[in-house]
From TrEMBL:
<comment type="similarity">
    <text>Belongs to the peptidase C40 family.</text>
</comment>
<dbReference type="InterPro" id="IPR038765">
    <property type="entry name" value="Papain-like_cys_pep_sf"/>
</dbReference>
<dbReference type="InterPro" id="IPR041382">
    <property type="entry name" value="SH3_16"/>
</dbReference>
<keyword id="KW-0645">Protease</keyword>
<keyword id="KW-0378">Hydrolase</keyword>
<dbReference type="Pfam" id="PF18348">
    <property type="entry name" value="SH3_16"/>
</dbReference>
<dbReference type="InterPro" id="IPR000064">
    <property type="entry name" value="NLP_P60_dom"/>
</dbReference>
<protein>
    <submittedName>
        <fullName>C40 family peptidase</fullName>
    </submittedName>
</protein>
<dbReference type="InterPro" id="IPR051794">
    <property type="entry name" value="PG_Endopeptidase_C40"/>
</dbReference>
<dbReference type="Pfam" id="PF00877">
    <property type="entry name" value="NLPC_P60"/>
</dbReference>
<feature type="domain" description="NlpC/P60">
    <location>
        <begin position="127"/>
        <end position="251"/>
    </location>
</feature>
<keyword id="KW-0788">Thiol protease</keyword>
């Protein structure tokens, strides 16, 4: 139980939609092993709060399992869980970057986990974080665009920012609006662009890859893609979504 009296649980499936209401639209997604609080359960649906960012929504009861203390997370862009410690054995699930598992032992190249056997090279201890959010985001280049997506199998602009930040130990909300208010330091208009900076529009966010290029999950490409920075600014304005509303810089990770 949590301090508030709500029940703690974890995500039991590879990726689960977090819905605005039972059978409603997707707002975000949660990944295998992520911790949640169950606020209410009714007619096969759970109203939950995600521990990582406080995001609330609904998902089927069947998507949840009892809470556990995970030991490792998937640090490769994606991985598979196998039925045996053998890459030729049947695969049980595809797991995205950021998924969390409990390792019970090791066998050759594989770790035995609550999801099956996962290649050791794809796993990182929970306490170990990455250091460069932009490099993490670049690992998603080519990932299909998915509104509300949070995984290597489909992601949107704010999902890309959140996954990269959390992997580097930077607290990050799930949506671009709160990200614009909370992430890093707001820079004055006309500031030079540096790799790893974030540019915001109303309803959109993009990484600065270099002073001339953006990296973002966007509908124009329907994927995570690189785009010329000035062309992107002009295109977004031309399509009616307005100018850049904020330029923010994340803290350096020591």
């Amino acid at each position: 139980m949590s301090e508030s009296g709500s029940e703690c649980a974890r995500i039991a499936l590879p990726v689960v939609d977090l819905l605005r209401a039972p059978d409603g639209p997707r707002d975000r997604q949660l990944l295998c092993g992520e911790a949640v609080e169950i606020l209410d359960q009714k007619q096969g649906w759970a109203h939950i709060r995600a521990t990582k960012d406080g995001y609330q929504g609904y998902m089927p009861d069947a998507a949840l399992a009892p809470a556990q203390t995970n030991s490792h997370w998937i640090s490769a862009p994606a991985s598979h869980a196998y039925s045996a410690a053998d890459f030729k054995s049947p695969d049980l699930a595809a797991l995205s970057f950021g998924s969390q598992v409990l390792v019970s032992g090791f066998e050759g190249r594989f770790a035995a986990t609550d999801q099956g056997y996962i290649p050791r090279v794809h796993l990182t201890p929970m306490e170990q974080q990455l250091r460069d959010p932009l490099s993490v985001a670049m690992g998603f280049l080519g990932t299909p665009y998915l509104w509300g997506g949070n995984s290597r199998f489909g992601i949107d602009c704010s999902g890309l920012v959140q996954l990269a930040c959390l992997a580097c130990g930077i607290a990050c909300p799930g949506d671009s609006g709160p990200q614009e208010r909370q992430l890093g330091t707001l820079l004055p208009p006309g500031s030079a662009y540096q790799p790893g900076d974030l540019l915001f529009w109303k309803g959109h966010v993009a990484w600065v890859h270099d002073p001339d290029t953006l990296l973002h999950a966007n509908v124009h490409a329907m994927a995570v893609a690189l785009e010329t920075l000035q062309q992107a600014i002009a295109r977004i304005a031309d399509q009616g979504d307005g100018p850049v509303t904020a330029h923010r810089r994340l803290p350096q990770i020591g």
